[in-house]
TrEMBL record:
InterPro entries: Sigma-G_inhibitor_Gin. This is Sigma factor G inhibitor Gin. It holds the Pfam family Gin. It comes from the Bacteria.
Length: 64
């Protein structure tokens, strides 16, 4: 299932404004980062970077 987005969104991984990508919970991930993540192996340094970024998704922001 793929959702097409026509407007610019702030990518939570590369921190750039991108037009196309996916929404993962409260985070937007551009198609480039999505592709990069899929093609990054766990032994690569980038992988840890992506993991750190993705961790933010699982931590719901508390609004008080
Ligand atoms: Zn990105």
């Amino acid at each position: 299932m793929e959702e097409r987005i026509a407007e610019n969104h702030h990518c939570g991984i590369c921190e750039e404004k991108k037009r196309q990508g996916i929404h993962l919970y409260n985070m937007f991930i551009c198609t480039e980062c999505e592709y990069n993540m899929i093609h990054t192996e766990p032994r690569e340094e980038k992988y840890q970077y992506y993991l750190q970024k993705l961790k933010n998704i699982n931590q719901p922001t508390m609004f008080s």
